[in-house]
Amino acid sequence: MADRRLSSTLIGVFVSMAVISTVLSWTSTALIPTEITLFLWAVAAFAAVPALQINVVTFGKAAPNLVSTLNIGAFNVGNALGAWVGGSVIAHGLGLTSVPLAAATLAVLALLITLITFRQTGNPDLAPATH
């Protein structure tokens, strides 16, 4: 889907991650609902990878190998920052059920950055793929 409707895919992914993370804060006290919610979260999180990869390659056409490498590096930085935010939430005594709410906040922040980027650069949707 990301190869046809990039902006819609990224917006949908970040909205899904925010909603599912919020739901996780409610379901995290019971095993089965937590497992279902985490599965849905994983689907949404992994759906972001190809869409973001297409996005950076689209904007970095002159050096696709470089932007691909930087994109994966950015994923690693994001993982580290996410762990730091989650640890900070716990360290400040907000409780484990607050960690998904912090994740939802980060997803909303990613959505806002995405919307601002799309507005400044125009419509990033690619022409339909020819297979």
TrEMBL record:
GO cellular component, one term: plasma membrane
The keyword Iron belongs to this UniProt entry's keyword annotation: no
This protein's UniProt keywords: Cell membrane, Membrane, Transmembrane, Transmembrane helix
GO molecular function, one term: transmembrane transporter activity
Membrane-topology annotation of the record: Multi-pass membrane protein
Keyword Transmembrane: yes
Major site of localization recorded for this protein: membrane
Subcellular location: Cell membrane
Domain of life: Bacteria
InterPro entries: MFS_Efflux_Transporters, MFS_trans_sf
Organism classification: Bacteria, Pseudomonadati, Pseudomonadota, Gammaproteobacteria, Pseudomonadales
Membrane-crossing residue ranges in chain numbering: 12-32, 38-60, 72-93, 99-118
Protein name per the record: Major facilitator transporter
